[in-house]
Amino acid sequence: MAAPKKGRKPSGGQGRPGRALAFILIAMVALTGGMFISGHTTPRLGIDLAGGTSITLTAKNQPGQKNAINQTNMNTAVNVIDRRVNGLGVTESEVQTQGKENIIVNIPRGTNEKQARKQVGTTAQLFFRPVLTIAPGGKTPAPTPSPSAKDKASGRDKPATGDGAEKSASPSASPTTQGRAVTDALKADATPKATPSGKPSGKPQPSTPPVPQPQPGANVPPALQKKLASVDCTKPMERAQAGQGVQASEPTIACSDDGKQKYVLGPSDVAGTEVTDAKAGYDNQRGSGWLVQLDFNDKGSKQFAASTGKLAGQQMPQNQFAIVLDGQVVSAPSVSQSITGGNAEISGSFTQQTAEDLANVLSYGALPLTFEESSVTTVSAALGGEQLQAGLIAGAIGLALVVLYLVVYYRGLSMIAILSLLASAILTYTIMTLLGPAIGFALNLPAVCGAIVAIGITADSFIVYFERIRDEIREGRTLRPAVERGWPRARRTILVSDFVSFLAAAVLFAVTVGKVQGFAFTLGLTTLLDVVVVFLFTKPLMTILAKRKFFASGHPWSGLDPERLGAKPPLRRSRRTAARTDHPKEA
Questions:
Q1: CB neighbours (10 Å) of residue 211?
Q2: What is the rounded CA–CA span in Å between residue 132 and residue 251?
Q3: Which of 74, 161, 452, 581: CA 20 to 30 A from 22?
Q4: pLDDT band for position 419 (cuts 50, 70, 90)
């Protein structure tokens, strides 16, 4: 018999099992440490387990549109609201219709409820309207038909020019060399003015600029002037109702979202449906901080260029356009030249959060219906706690039955299976806990079911490997060769089985929504971890224990007793004896 070549590994590749075990143990320690360092030691729970907020939105027909409430528009509204909620980083939320005119939005506990309610409740169409005049948010005296003599003497009726104009008006804007427009939001009152090159000049103003009073030359209808004086935007109820029930083709009164200013706005120049994209970003090139970039389609680009062209030649505040959502002004930038090219930037004293909020409103603000917040209720977690407890009890019973079966049938080998299940449980728990703050993953009841199902999938992988080893022993091999020869066959079976499970989970995740996605996500995650545990923990541990006398000698309680498995060593000895007796005859 030829001697085996040096350096050649046995079939199956014994490798260095100690390295694989050390790697997975380090990974478990690192994940556990990261969990405690982050301060999140338990998984984030979904609304069905931890409670949360339930918001009911009721659809309302817009003026002149009696048949707007239909299934198509309601489905569109659900999709837009769902995208808006997810834009806030809220996952495991539920957005669904109830009846013909209601939408139910369930938001899990642990999210920014106030912010989410504000975004979800802001469901009217988005419009870009020219600003006719601005006044302080509170009640103001009705404007006189013409400036007083005292005003003429003091020069108040003269248009502001020079540096004084820059201090008394909101920051202006101009196109950049790339054809994009850089505009500064009115409410960002400490923002420097933008130059044609896009570089800010001057120093930020430390205080809020004076708000212009209504001007007779602003083409404000007398009825709106009277209403402007009577509206008190500092009161939330009046602020919410100021711009409601007005068609896009009519002028209107609107309040700023903080109630500090109120506006007279002209008919809409551009609808929010013409905005194709809006996103927040940080301007590293010019150093102007956080800004919002928005893009228009072809129709919106032409309309926006025409609107800004008309506004550019006006005095303050008639050179501003208001971004109006749900009847409230979320931003009122000013322009100095026509903005062409179909894209623009809104910059100002934004933080990352305020820039993302405005971008979210611009992206998902255009709904085909008007909605009002009918009710807001807090969902108790008591029922969810009972369901979670029942699910955990079911999982514990299932795990106990699996362990009992392994102990009875595999005896000593069950220790390897139990340790592998423990390693899989640690990895699953720590990863699911860290995914909560990382991507907003929330553990709901179907996800718990997915984790319970994964116990059987993981145990099945161990059983496949153990049975391959036992088959090799039945053929007359000793334990160490059996471990290495049985691994390639078991490996193929395990990979095929796990691939089918992962493919099913991926398809289920892609074609479903809501809670079913939680089940699919957990099933896919645990299936991947099963492969990691079997390759980096179960196989190396089996290789190491195969060298121990308890397993190598085939102890009756090892689960690898050749006699109990039906192996026939005498038959193997007789074959070797026959081979020796046949050799001299051939000679």
A1: 19
A2: 9
A3: 452
A4: very high
Mean pLDDT of 109-136: 73
DSSP assignment of 125-183 equals PEEEEEEEEEEESS--PPPPSS--HHHHHHTTTSPP-HHHHHHHS----EE-TTS-EEE
DSSP 587: -
Q: Which residues of 110-129 are buried (b: 16+ CB within 10 A; e: fewer)?
A: bbebeebbebbbbbbbbbbb
Three-class SS state of 279? strand
Give the torsion sign (CA, 137, 140, 144, 150): negative
CA distance 419 to 459: 11
Query: Which amino acid is it at 548?
Result: R
In eight-state DSSP terms, residue 134 is E
| 6-33 per-residue burial string, b: 16 or more CB within 10 A, e: under 16 | eeeeeebebeebeebbeebeebbeebbe
Tokens 């143990």 found at: 25
Q: How long, in residues, is the chain? A: 587
Q: How many Cα atoms sit within 13 Å of 557 on the Cβ side? A: 2
Provide the terminal-to-terminal Cα distance of the chain, rounded to the nearest Å.
16
Three-state SS for 135?
strand
Rg of the chain in Å (alpha carbons): 35
Q: Strand 102-108 relative to strand 289-296: parallel, antiparallel, unpaired?
A: unpaired
CA distance linking residue 102 with residue 452, whole number of Å: 36
Looking up tokens 């397993």, which residue turns up?
551
Q: What's the CA dihedral at 53, 58, 62, 64 to 10 degrees?
A: 170
Q: In this predicted structure, what is the pLDDT of residue 111?
A: 59
What band does 151 get if pLDDT is binned at 50, 70 and 90? very low
Confidence of residue 160 (pLDDT cuts 50, 70, 90): very low
CA distance 463 to 466: 5
- pLDDT of 65-112, one tens digit each? 667 788 877 877 787 777 667 655 555 677 888 888 888 887 776 556
Give the tokens for residue 119. Answer: 């975004």
Structure tokens of 25?
Answer: 């143990």
Residues 278, 273: Cα–Cα separation, whole Å: 12
| Spatial distance between the Cα atoms of 423 and 392, rounded to a whole number of angstroms | 18
Read off the pLDDT of residues 320-342 as tens digits, 9 standing for 90 and up: 888 887 678 888 888 877 888 88
Q: Are β-strands 275-283 and 289-296 bridged in parallel, bridged antiparallel, or unpaired?
A: antiparallel
For residue 250, what is the DSSP state?
A: S
Strand bridging mode 328-331 / 252-256: parallel
Please report which confidence band the pLDDT of residue 23 belongs to, taking 50, 70 and 90 as the band edges.
very high
Residues 547, 558: contact at Cβ < 8 Å?
A: no
Average pLDDT estimate for 212-240: 71
